[in-house]
């Protein structure tokens, strides 16, 4: 049983960002791209029902930035939500963070509420209202699931490599903190809902599931991560 009094998503205040020249040298940058090779294939975001995608996009566009969740007129599945995120941020010059709140439903997620905020060219932060809403939703039901989508605008790295979505070391450290949290780990292991991380980049949407492999080595050796 989850304990609502414990703010289990406090680590979300670290935010998300695009890959850039790493503070810890070339090894971190190489590890970032190598780790991305083990993430799932890009998500299909075409031919998913134009009305559902349009409905979701309108809700995203009309959200008060960083404020409380906005209910959808009807639930949409995970890929329809991601397609709306993709269309909304495709040409965006700055990073957007879009959150989908819903319930795990078989092999998909039924999204019923959304939140949206914007950041800068290289990063975007969770607002306190978003963190509170994510935490309350995730602990509200065993099947409660959260989808976190942010985009990477064009930058020297993705223009040069024309790569599939690549999560930065910062993004993967945020995910690692989630994966290693005992409450979240227990819920996922028992078949409950999860928090899932997605990126829109170079006209693709990808989920990142693999912690940065250098961070795994650091965690195993007892070093602090992030």
Briefly summarize what is shown.
With 226 residues, the chain is an alpha+beta fold. Helix content is 36%, strand content 23%.
Overview of the molecule:
The chain has helices at 26-36, 50-62, 78-89, 128-138, 156-161, 169-180, 182-189, 213-220; strands at residues 16-17, 70-77, 96-105, 108-118, 123-124, 144-151, 195-201, 204-207. By secondary structure, it is of the alpha+beta class. It has one domain. The strands form 2 sheets. It has a 6-stranded mixed beta sheet with strand order 2-4-3-6-7-8, with helices on both faces. Strands 1-5 form a two-stranded antiparallel sheet. A hairpin with a 2-residue loop joins strand 3 and strand 4 (108-118). The protein is globular.
